[in-house]
Amino acid sequence: MGMEAGVRLPELSEGISLPEVKRLVTQENINLYAEVSTDFNPIHIDPEYAKKTPAGGTIAHGMLLLAYISQMMTAAFGRNWLSGSSLSVRFRTPARPGNTLTVSGTIRKVTEDNDQKLVNCEILCQNQNGDPIITGEAKVKVEKQ
Description:
single chain; alpha+beta; Thiol Ester Dehydrase, Chain A; 33% strand
């Protein structure tokens, strides 16, 4: 499969790993995301407030973490991810400043439908301790070559 259709994986078959994305979560990045998203909930941006909550400190915005997943999926599937896709996830554990996150994925199933392939991927975002932050599934429609 070539790059012309936006598919960057050499093959679409079950068991293939998607390109990993690693990101260090920093309070600065959380604050920048708060400005862009206009989500200034103190659980994200006020360490003194956040210390007194059950979270015990600031946590990253869920949508910031989903952006890391989307980055991995775009690297793997290009325009196909941006146009014909869906994502279904569960947030398991908060991501905190100082966490190094690894986003990974595996193709679990490929089915064909007329001129398209439907690719189901298992998604995992975990911290440096191996704790799952986000688990879920992504589906991407890819035009047959």
